[in-house]
Amino acid sequence: MEGFALETLQDDIVMIKYTDADEGVDGDNNVIMRGGIAIPKNYQTDAWRTGIIILQGPNATGTEVGDYVIFPNNMGVPIKNVEVVGTGLVSQGIFLNSQRIFGRLQKIEGS
Question: Average pLDDT in the 4-13 region?
């Protein structure tokens, strides 16, 4: 999408930026962090992931932009280096239908 910035999403689509990823030496999001343990992403494709909602379509329900969420790793369309209006560059994330989100998360103070 060089030369463009994403402004809106359609239907019930949400754009989620990963918050549980660790970038490897090549800059690729290749491991999922679980309690300080790095799990290779290609080792466990059905793992759950955590992220923050960056954009959502008008029919997305149960969440708002800025919510932390938990969702499946094996569904949706992965994204890389997408410029978002009002947010900037999102280096790693996913487009997902909102009904695929397992739930919202509450950040624990001090962690």
Answer: 97
